[in-house]
Design brief:
With 316 residues, the protein is an alpha/beta fold. It has two domains: 220 residues, Alpha-Beta Complex (Spore Coat Polysaccharide Biosynthesis Protein SpsA, Chain A), CATH 3.90.550.10; 84 residues. It is built from eleven helices and nine strands. Strands 1, 2, 3, 4, 5, 6, 7, 8 and 9 form a nine-stranded mixed β-sheet that branches. β1, α1 and β2 form a beta-alpha-beta unit. It is globular, with a radius of gyration of 20 Å.
């Protein structure tokens, strides 16, 4: 594969994102990648105007294909894209991540060039844009800052910066040989779980291939005001905490060590929860809305840790 431009299939799951999907597709239409490529937009039961926007766009752009996936969940949508794709390299975007015209070149660069690398997965940088602004209390939970890295680097678990499913690529053979995304670990409707990408990366590492982070493959994640509500941010904190339990267990042998980890994580959550609950009560009494919101989100995170640990403890 080195020194040539392989056929790339870009796979974008979409669900109720009519505000951004048109601009997302327009930006992909500006790609300068000199090789052959296609884009599959996988609609996952959207009920807004998104499907019409995507169907109309695909009808007038030969590289773009519209596909419907009735099974709810981002992993089901990605897996449908994998089955439909024709490319040697599969690149994954999202319906609210804007990319520059060189994104395909950047995210596939390590698969094309001789750098002593054996990448089985490459992921890029994600930074956050707030087109409607962002409340001060919410920035700590939503804001992804630009990385300070300037060159591609090899990464191992726990993958820092974190892997974002809206900016990564892998050879198609990785999925055919080692399986697809686990639907139980990814987002389903309003559940904001985020464990399928690191679990896939860990599988690729166990197979003897490498995981690389490429800071030059940049995606800009659009977070509108409708997602910055206190309730939605609490759900994000809770579900991401639950996902992190699954991610940590990937590297801990089954048995006493994993049980000890789960009990320790549960104890920490149980000790922190009363503190954050007290902060919520005090902030409510003092009418400090920002502090109340921050504390409620941190309390929800404790709940996610507790739910994740208890779920694993009682199913072992």
């Amino acid at each position: 594969m080195p020194d040539r431009f392989p056929f790339v299939s870009v796979i974008i799951p979409t669900y109720n994102r009519e505000r951004f999907i048109g601009e997302t597709l327009r930006r992909f239409d500006l790609q300068t990648y000199p090789g052959e490529w296609e884009l599959l937009i996988i609609d996952n039961n959207s009920s807004d105007g998104g499907p019409k926007i995507t169907r109309d766009f695909c009808a007038s752009h030969r590289r773009f294909r519209f596909v419907s996936e009735p099974r709810q969940g981002v992993s089901h949508a990605r897996n449908r894209g994998i089955r439909e794709a024709r490319g040697e390299i599969l690149a994954f975007g999202e319906d609210d991540v804007f990319v520059g015209p060189d994104w395909i070149e950047r995210i596939t660069e390590l698969f094309r060039t001789e750098r002593g690398a054996r990448p089985g997965l490459v992921y890029g940088a994600l930074v956050t844009d707030f087109p409607d602004g962002c409340p001060e209390w919410a920035k700590a939970f939503w804001d992804n800052r630009p990385t300070t890295l300037t060159e591609p680097v090899r990464r191992k678990f726990p993958f820092e910066p974190g892997i974002g499913g809206g900016n990564m690529a892998a050879p198609a053979e990785m999925f055919h040989a080692h399986g697809m995304f686990d639907p139980n670990l990814g987002r389903i409707g309003t559940r904001l779980l985020a464990g399928e990408e690191p679990e896939m990366a860990e599988r690729i590492l166990r197979a003897g291939r490498e995981v690389w982070f490429h800071p030059g493959a940049l995606g800009r994640h659009q977070i509108p005001a409708t997602r910055l509500t206190e309730e939605n941010t609490m759900r994000l904190a809770s579900d991401s905490a639950e996902s992190s339990i699954e991610a940590k267990l990937m590297k801990i042998p089954h048995g006493w060590r994993s049980t000890r980890f789960l009990l320790g994580r549960l104890l920490v959550a149980a000790l922190k929860a009363p503190f954050f609950a007290l902060n919520v009560a005090l902030a409510t009494l003092l009418r400090n809305a920002d502090h109340r919101s921050r504390s409620r989100v941190r309390l929800a995170r404790c709940g996610g840790y507790a739910r994740g640990t208890c779920g694993r403890l009682f199913t072992r």
